[in-house]
Amino acid sequence: MFGQTSLEDKVNRAIDRLRTFEPPEGYYLAFSGGKDSQCIYHLAKEAGVKFDAHYSLTTVDPPELIYFIRDNYPDVIVEKPELSMWRLIEKKRMPPTRMVRYCCDVLKEGGGIGRVVITGVRWAESSKRKNRDVIEIIASRKKDKIKLNSDNDEDRRMFETCITKSKRIVNPIVDWEDSDVWGYIKSRKLKYCRLYDEGFHRLGCVGCPMAGQAGRERDFKRWPKYKLNYIKAFQRMVDKRIEDGLETKWTTGQEVFDWWMEYTKIPDLGIDGQIEMDEYD
Known about the structure:
Helices cover 37% and strands 11% of the residues. It is α/β, with parallel strands linked by helices.
């Protein structure tokens, strides 16, 4: 899109974006400890803009990531959830799935209400994120999403407005490739979480359905206690469903886990893997 733009040109563009949209009260910087959020954190420092960084603890974060943030970013504010993932599963009475990601809404995306938020969203991360447009007003229903295309300046495609959550979002590195992210980290001699050197490409929640079966199996091999905690939470979930009089074909947490990992299906309900969980409940 921008041709053979050099890394430093992209850095300067990102800094200009941050300075352009800086609010009087300063930014709310959404920090995850991953490579992209490290970039936006240090770019905000270079830009000289006012911000406070926040890390949403999900209770299913990789331990190495938590230690990395604690040791290298002590100024980041840790936002602790009211409920752990394990208790959230029990409360929702269903597992989190690719189609029903209630865990993200509750554990990760609630911060920054009423603020201008900096994120590390990038087009290169997924085809879905390439649809982020000039300025968006997102109402309560997906069909009410309004795109304002009157501004043809490409540099404004990183700015979004979300009225329903009273949250405005700035994505300063939206046009960066993976090579730009790693180039920036190396050029600034930044320490990063060692999990990247061990072959992990994402540092999200352990067992996240979006990671795919192979990625989740790798997670549970590395952190087996998380697997046990999921099974225990699923057992409490099953017990809660029965207690509340809801139909369920599961009897144990292990059965739920096997279905959740897409090892089994429930033929009589037409459920083939977790993709249809929202229809089941």
